[in-house]
User: Fold these one by one.
Assistant:
Number 1:
Amino acid sequence: MIHFDNVTKVYANQNRPALDHVSVDIDKSEFVFLVGPSGSGKSTFLRLILKEERPNSGAIHVAGKDLARLSNFKVPHLRRRIGCVFQDFRLLPNKNVYENVAFALEVIGKPRRFIRKVVPEVIELVGLEGKAHRMPDELSGGEQQRVAMARAFVNRPMILLADEPTGNIDPATSIGIMKVLDRINRTGTTVVMATHDAAIVDSMRKRVVELEDGKIVRDQSRGVYGQAY
Amino acid sequence: MRINFILSEVWIGLRRNLTMTVAVIVTVAVGMAMLGVGFLITTQVNSMKDYWFDKVEVSVFLCSKNSADPDCKGKGATAAEMETLKAKLESMPEVEGVIFENKAAAYKNFQESSASKTLLEVTTAEDMPESFRVKLKNPDISTPVLQAMQGQPGVSSVVNQRDLLGGFFGLLDALRSASYVLAGVVVIASILLIANTVRLSAFNRRRETGIMRLVGASNLYIQLPFVMEGMIAGLIGSVGAAIMLILAKVFVFEEFQTFLAPGSQLQWDSVAWAIVWTLVIGVAICVVASFVTLRRYLRV
C-alpha cells in the first residue's frame, strides 16, 4: 500500500537530510506507529506520502501509484484516497460538525444525496451521534478530533495518516481516539500514526517504525515505544 | 460540479473582502469607461472623416484681373490657360472630376457660408476668384495634383481643403489618445488591485483551501471561487462603465453632434459595440489577473 525505496529528502537550506535512505513497506490494512523524537523525519514521511513534498532520490509508491510519475493534475485524486488527521484538528470554526464533515465531500463534487446519506453514518462511527449541529468551539478537544477523523474517513480512504492525533488531548480521552482509529483500521483502511505518546504505543501492540535523524533505527511488529524514552 | 457550493464560497469571499471588491469595481468601471470613450471618439472621428473626406476637394484658384498674387503679374487667367489647366487636371490619374466654379457661383457659396454682414456688404461677385474644384479619387493622395498645379500660368493658389480639416481631426485624435492612455493607467491600477484582493482573499481563506487541498479537491474547485470573485467584480465594474458610456453618449456626444452634419453622427449601435467590447475586456482582465495571482499565492 505504501512503499518507500531508498528515499532521501533534503530540504532547501539544510545540510542534514530529513529522511536518509529510508526503505519501508506498509501493507494493506496494517496499523503502523511512526515514533521518534521531534525532527526525526516523521512529518516528512507523511508529507511525502501525500506528495506535498518530493524526495531528492528514491522511489515512493502509494496505492500502486509511482508518485514521481504522477502528474500534478492527478495529485488531488491521490489525496482523495488518503485521509489526514492532525494535532491541531484543522476544523472550520464557522461550520458545524455536520458541515465540517460534509465539506470534504462537497469540495470533491459528491452529490448532495450521497452526502446526506454518508455523513450521519460516519458521525455515528466516530461516536458523535446527536452532536451534528454543534459548532467546533462547543466541543471538547477529543470531540473535535473525532470530527476531524470523521472528515478524514468520510470518503472511505484506503490510507489514514494521523500526525500526533492525541498531541493536544488528555490521556483518558486519547483512549477513545485510539478506539476510533482502531475501528477505522478494522474496516480495512491502512493507518499510519506518528506519535510521541509512549503509553498509547505500548497499549496497542501494533507495528512500530522508529526514526532517528532521518534513518529507520527500528521496525518491529507488535512493538512498544522503546526503553530510551 | 456543485454550483451552489461554489457560489456560496464566492459570496462569502466577496462579503469578507467588501472594501477591496468595491475598489476593484470602481477602478474597472473608470478604466473601462475611458477605454469605451476612446472607442467612441475613434468611431466618431472615422465617421466624420468618411463624411468630410468624401467632400473635400483641391481648389485651384485662378488669377483674376486685380489679383494681388505676384504669380499672376496683375493679369487674369486667359481662356487658353484655363483650357490647358483643365485638360491637364482631367488627364491626371488621381483626379476623379473637375468642376469649374465661376465668380457668380463662388459669390453664392460665400454668401451662404459667411456670417459677417459687413463683409458681405463690401464684396461683390467681381471680387470672387474663379477656381477649379478638383475631386480626387483617393483623398489621401493629393500631392501630385498640388505639385502639378502650383506655379502654372494662370494659377493664383492651390488649396487642399483637407489641410483645413487637419487641425480639427488632430485635436480629436489627441483626445482619443489621451483617453486610451488614461484607460491604460487605470487598467494597470485595477490589475494591481485585483492581484491584492485575490491575495487577501487567499490569505483569509487559507484554512478552507488547506483542507480542500488535503481532501483532494481539484485545482478547479479550489481556484474557481477566487476567479469568479474577480469575474463578478469585473462584471459589475464593466456594467458601471456601460452606464457611464450611455451617459457620455446622451450628455456629451449628442450635445456635440448638433454641430455636425447628420451623416457623421455617432449612432447607438457604435455605443452598443463599445459596451460589448469594454464588458469583454473588463471581465477578461479581471479573470486573467485573478488567475495569475492565484498561481503565486495559492499552492495547489
Number 2:
Amino acid sequence: MTAPREVDTAALRARYPDVFDRPASARLAMPAMIVTALAILVYGLVDLDFSPSRFFAGLSQLGWISVMMIPPDPGSSLPVYLKAMGETLSIALLGTTLAAVFALPVSLLAARNVVPSSVLRFPVRRFLDSIRGVDTLIWALVWINVVGLGPFAGVLAIAVSDFGAFGKLFSEAIEGADKKQVEGIRASGGSALHEIRFGLLPQVLPVIAGQVLYFIESNTRSATIIGIVGAGGIGLQLAEQIRVLEWQKVSFLILMILVAVAAIDFISSKLRFAIIGPRAVA
Amino acid sequence: MTVAVSILPEQQLAVLNAAYGQAVARRRWRLLLGAVIFAAALVLAAVGAEVNLRTLFTYFGNFLSYFDRIFTLDNGQRVWTDVGEWLWGWRKWLRMLGETLLISYVGTLIGATLAFALNFFAAENTSPSSWLRFVVRRLLEFARTVPGIVFALIFVIAFGLGPMAGVLAIAIHSTGALGKLFSEIVENADMKPVEGIRSTGASWLSCMRFAIVPQVTAGYASYALLRFEINVREASVMGFVGAGGIGQELVVAIRKFYYSDVSAILLTIIVTVFIIDISTGWLRGRLFGKEARS
C-alpha cells in the first residue's frame, strides 16, 4: 500500500482560487444568515410570550387531555356525526365543482396564448391573486353574513376560494398546451371559439380533471374546518365538543376525519389513474 | 383553385364511418356513464349540503352589496376618499400583522427543525429499521392530516389563549408536511457518498451528516420557504380560535359588522401575503438558482 501522496497545496491553491480563497463576504454569508435566523427566532419566542414554565404546564395539560381521549367514543351521537360527515363531503364536492365550472372561462382570459393582450390579462390575474390571498375560513365568515349559518355558506366559501386557485392552475395548463393543434384548426378555417373547443380543450381537459379531483381531496380537509366558524359539516361538531371538553368524542371525530380523508384520497387517486393514466397521479 | 381534399366514394366512406363510430361509441358510453354518476353525486351532495338556490338568489344581492358596504366609510363616503379614516387602526393592525408573521416564522422554523430530525427515519433508504420507519411515517401522516386549526383549538385549551397555541399548531402541521417532502428528497439522494463514508467505518450519524445532508440542504431550504408562505396564510386565521395574530381583529370586525375595518384588514392581509410570496420567490431564486424555484 502506498502512503498518501504529498499534496502540493500551494499549486492547488493557485489552480483553484475560488475554492481556497473565497471572499470574506461569501464565507460570512452562511453564518450571518444563521445568526439572523436565530436572532429572529429568539425575538419571536420572547415577543409571543413563550416561557418554559408555561410550555411545560401546557404540555402536562396536553398529556392529560390525550389520556382523557382514550378510548374514542361517540356516545349516543354517532348518527349526528355521520350526517355531519356526509355534509362535509357534500360541501367539498359541490364547492369544488362550482369553482371549476366558473373558473374555466375566466382562466381562458388569464392565459397568454388565448388573450395575447397583457392589458386585459393583468387585471384578471391580480383579481385571481387577491381571491387566493384570502383564506377559505375568511370567505366562510363573509358568506355566513350573506346566506346565514349552515353548510350552504361552506359550499360558497370553498367555491370562491378555489375559484382563485383554479383560475391560476387552469390558465397555466392552457399556457402549457401545444399550439400546433390550434394552428391546425385555424388553418382549416375554424373560428376563435372552434380553436378553443377543438384545439385547446382536448389537450387541457385531462390535466384539469386531475387537478379538480386533487382539489376535491384537499377540500375534504378544508371542509372539515370551515365548520369551526359555523359553516356546517363535521368541524362544527368538532369545535363544539372541544369547547365543552368532551375529549372522547373529540378523538372519535378526529379519527373519523382521518378515515374519511384517507378514503377520499384512495378513491380519487384511483379515479385520476383511470381518467388520465399514471403520469398525472404524481 | 383545385380542392386538395379527395372525396371518397360512398361505399368506402360508409365502412370507415362505421369503424369510427364503433371506436368512439364505447368511449362515449363510458363518458356518459361517468357524467351520470357524477351528476347523481352532485344532486345527493346538494341535498346533503342544504343547498337552497332560492336563498342564493334572494341573498346574492347581499353578497355584492356586502362588498359595497365594506368599501364604504361610516359617513357614507367611499373608503379611498379618506385613507386616514379607513386605515385608522393601522398601528394596531401592523402590530398584529407582525405577530402573525412571527407566529408563522417561529412555527415554520420549529416545524422544519423537527421534520429535519425525523425525516431520515422516515426515508426508505436511510432509515435504520423498518418498524421505526413505520412509526415515524404514521406520526408524520397524523400531523399532516389533522388540520392546523384543529390543533390550535386543542392547544388553546391546553396552553391558554394567545399566540403560543398558534405557533405550536403551525409547528406540528409543518412538521408533518415538511417531514414527508424532506424524506422524499432524501429518497432521491445519491447513495454512493453514503457507501463511501460507511466504508471508512463511520457511524450512521456521520453518514447522514457528511453524505446526505450536503446533498439535500438546498431542497430542504426551498421547501421550508414555500411552507413559510403557506403558514403566513394559515397564521392569519389562527386568531379565529383565539390563537393569536391578525385573525382576532378580523373576526371581531366581521362579526360586529365594522364594515370598513373588514376591508382595511383584508387589504393589509392580502398585501402582506403578496409581499411574502414575492420576496420568498426572489429569495429561493437567489439561493438555489432557477431550477429550485418551481
